[in-house]
Amino acid sequence: MTNQPSIATPILDRSLSFEEFLDTYPDRNQRCELIDGAVCEMLPTGPHEDIAGFLAAEFSIEIRRQKLPLSVPKSCLVKPRTPQSGYFPDVAILDRDALALEPLWPTASVIQNGETIPLVVEVVSTNWGDDYGRKCVDYEAMGIAEYWTVDFRGLGATRYIGSPKRPTVTIFQLEDGEYRGERFVSGDRLVSGALPELSLSADEIFAIAS
Q1: Residue 207 and residue 210: Cα distance in Å, rounded?
Q2: Which helix (H) or strand (E) holds 169?
């Protein structure tokens, strides 16, 4: 298996600003992200979507069980500090109280403040370089407290998931402004700072795609 991620192919031959992207693409049937001005269509697989749905449901159950002031939106557009970028994370948990400070949320479901997102998840695809690279850097810079990469096929480079490569969930926790990652593989139970009472194993996630 190659260690080189595929590159998301832009669907336009020109660069867009975030404002142009916001005006044009979220209302279309296409599922797109803005990456450094390039509009890239997202074409997730069935197992990818199944895992994202499973995690959204598990998080929602835990939030209701603990009566936390949090929610899991169907989708939201995250605007990082990087100019001309906008990401649709696979799963996000939002602080409902902090939504009052999000000026674009009422009209466009856009999140700009890292404090509004206690936890964000990317289910890793063939363009894994974005998940382990630019998104990790951007989410860290925003101050998002916790970031999961769910690499259910073990696609990432060995520097990210170790050797031998295998399905891995990496949970990054923000400490002194920097992410510290902990890997979880088959046989491990996940440890979340955002949802410390969450009872979930790596195997339960990987089984969704088997």
Answers
A1: 5
A2: strand 168-175
Q: What is the DSSP string of 112-137?
A: --GGG-SEEEEE--TTHHIIIIIHHH
Q: Measured at the alpha carbon of residue 68, what is the angle toward residues 180 and 205, in degrees to the nearest 5?
A: 55
Q: Please, what's the b/e burial string for 76-103 (b: 16 or more CB within 10 A of its CB; e: otherwise)? A: bbbbbebebbbbbbbbbbbbeebeeebe
**What is the Cα–Cα distance from 39 to 13, expressed in whole angstroms?**
9
Domains of the chain, by residue range, sit at 18-208
The candidate with the shortest Cα–Cα distance to 113, out of 92, 131, 134, 130, is 92
Residue 81's identity, in one-letter code, is R
Running along the chain, 210 residues long, what does each successive block of 10 average in pLDDT? Answer: 50 82 72 89 90 98 97 96 93 97 94 98 92 96 98 96 97 97 98 97 96
pTM of the model: 0.92
Annotation: CATH topology of 18-208 = tt1808, chain A (3.90.1570)
- Tell me the residue type at 177: G
Residue 190 near residue 198 (C-beta atoms within 8 A): yes
